[in-house]
Design goal:
This protein has 334 residues and is α/β, with parallel strands linked by helices. It has ten helices and 16 strands. The strands form three sheets. Strands 3, 5, 6, 7, 8, 15 and 16 form a seven-stranded mixed sheet that branches. Helix 1 (49-55) crosses helix 10 (312-320), helix 2 (126-148) packs across helix 3 (166-177) and helix 2 (126-148) packs across helix 8. The radius of gyration is 20 Å and the shape is globular.
């Protein structure tokens, strides 16, 4: 095979401005980036919010053109010049600028740096690994941040915002399995039964958090997992109990944070920023190990929708419009 199918993003200068295109195309294998040292036969990828932004050209996510999209991938090593990997190894890729600065995994082949790869845990198939993907891996990082800052079950409820999305759905499943009382905030109250099936004890309307609120509000949350940002994050912080912890990982509502310092200096609230892209390998391995031991695979199945590579471009708009429940897995060979 001299070509592979992939979702190629291109931008060129035109007389009336830059011209953007997103197409599933047959791409020469010789076009794979030279700086990778492991060729992976990708079996499954996924669509995250960042993928949606890149594919729909809604934000300057991509910094190198042309590029194959896809910040996540799972598959089998085809060839390797890296000492840690050999042909036949099953691997996962999350982040590291893939799909932004380096060709990504929404294609049948990816040439990646071996130092970026995580060995597929025995508990998962490659499809299940992508049902988790960056969103689920980020959810685990947020849950671990709460745990590492000492939030325990006796301290009160945990709020999860953006609850029906990928991060929120996995976070609810993890936290409820750890015994926490989880309250889910969503703009889709028709998903209440779904969220309760994942382990939420209560579901609240996101409108109660998304508008301008007071700098300090009635204390309720022992911890928060927030993927929304903006006023939602501000209100969540303002409602967090004394010495509570807020793990922030997203900006679905906005990147602004119009807050005061009052929750931090009067209540000792901790705001823990969670990055998934450049986490050191030890942290990645720890997060995937906890996912392998703690994530209910039956709940993961209920979170997941599977689409073909050719459907990914249209699905990107649905991701940005928050029309997707849970996780989207992309079968790159279908």
């Amino acid at each position: 095979m001299s070509t592979f199918r992939g979702l190629l993003l291109s931008k060129s200068e035109a007389a009336d401005g830059a011209k953007f295109s997103a197409n599933v195309a047959d791409i020469p294998l010789s076009d794979l980036p030279a700086d990778g040292d492991v060729v992976v036969r990708i079996e499954y990828s996924t669509l995250n919010y960042k993928d949606g932004l890149a594919i729909a050209n809604k934000s300057p996510v991509v910094r190198k053109w042309p590029i194959v999209a896809g910040i996540d991938g799972a598959g089998t090593v085809e060839s390797s010049d890296h000492p840690a990997w050999k042909a036949g190894d099953k691997v996962i890729l999350n982040g590291w600028g893939v799909g932004e600065n380096h060709w990504g995994c929404l294609g049948q082949r990816a040439k990646l740096k071996g130092d970026w790869l995580v060995r597929l845990p025995d508990a998962f198939t490659t499809q299940q690994a992508m049902a988790i993907g960056t969103a689920g891996y980020t959810a685990m990082l947020c849950c671990l941040a709460l745990e590492q800052h000492g939030v325990n079950k006796s301290q009160g409820e945990i709020l999860v915002t953006g609850a029906s999305g990928g991060v929120g759905s996995v976070a609810i499943s993890i936290l409820s399995s750890w015994g926490y009382d989880v309250v889910a905030s969503t703009g889709k109250l028709n998903e209440t039964e779904y969220l309760k099936s994942l382990g939420a004890k209560e579901v609240i309307d996101r409108a109660t958090l998304s508008a301008v609120g007071k700098p300090l509000q009635k204390e309720r949350w022992a911890g928060v997992v927030d993927s929304v940002g903006s006023h939602t994050l501000v209100n969540a912080v303002a409602q967090t109990r004394y010495r509570g912890v807020v793990a922030a990982c997203g900006l679905a509502q906005g990147a602004d944070f119009p807050a005061t310092v009052m929750p931090f200096i009067l209540r000792g609230v901790v705001l823990a920023g969670v990055d998934s892209v450049y986490q050191p390998m030890a942290t990645r391995l720890a997060a995937w190990a906890r996912l392998a031991s703690d994530l209910d695979l039956k709940k993961l199945d209920s979170i997941t929708t599977t689409i073909k590579l050719g459907d990914a471009i249209a699905a990107a708009d649905d991701v940005l419009a928050a029309k997707i429940r849970g996780r989207l897995v992309v079968v790159v060979n279908a």
